[in-house]
Specification:
mainly alpha; two-stranded antiparallel ribbon; 10 helices; about 5% strand
């Protein structure tokens, strides 16, 4: 998800919005849409208000676009911005995720929850405020097999002396073994649960 999937630029005066770089005219920016004209621009960090003055388009080219055969690109750009009328307010960003245009973490969370990729084995993990965050993170990493066991380190190209469990000599040290199957882990778990 990109920031421009979440926010839109709302143009008022055009004084706070970069003409070529900000995505103020639909999706994407004008630099990407008109790369040849962007190269001709003499002031690349100009504002919208620098290029649209009283419904007139004011260009500052390094050389004339007509000479380079870019007159059709200039016409297309002029058509794209022809309906823009600048006012007096401040330009601002509006959140697409909420009706009122205000950003909230809960609105983003709803989108993330609705579109997240389900990782096998993680659907049972509940993020509970009563459990310390480091414990939740550890459980989450364990469910993804991201704990630095000997086998995981070896998989990432880190040299280890042996990928076998130190307690259960002869059994590969993987996340499942270290947390559940290892005789040492079983003794510790039984002492804790008691």
């Amino acid at each position: 998800m990109d920031v421009h999937d979440i926010f839109d630029v709302v143009i008022e005066s055009g004084k706070q919005t970069l003409f070529w770089y900000d995505p103020w005219l639909g999706s994407g920016n004008l630099k990407a849409k008109y790369p040849s004209l962007f190269e001709l621009e003499s002031r690349k960090r100009c504002r919208v208000s620098d290029r649209i003055v009283d419904s007139t388009h004011v260009w500052r080219w390094k050389s004339r676009p007509v000479v380079l055969g870019l007159d059709s690109a200039v016409s297309a750009l002029s058509r794209d911005i022809s309906n823009i009328r600048l006012g007096t307010g401040s330009d601002h960003w509006s959140c697409k995720l909420s009706v009122d245009g205000r950003y909230s973490v809960s609105s983003l969370r709803k989108i993330v929850d609705a579109t997240h990729v389900n990782i096998p084995g993680t659907s049972d993990i509940l993020w509970c405020k009563a459990v310390p965050i480091k414990v939740l993170c550890f459980v989450w990493r364990a469910a993804q097999d991201r704990i630095p066991t000997a086998m995981a380190l070896e998989k990432r190209g880190i040299v280890v002396n042996s990928n076998l469990c130190c307690s259960c000599i002869g059994i590969p040290e993987c996340t499942g073994h270290v947390l559940m199957d290892c005789s040492f882990a079983t003794v510790i778990r039984n002492n804790i649960l008691g």
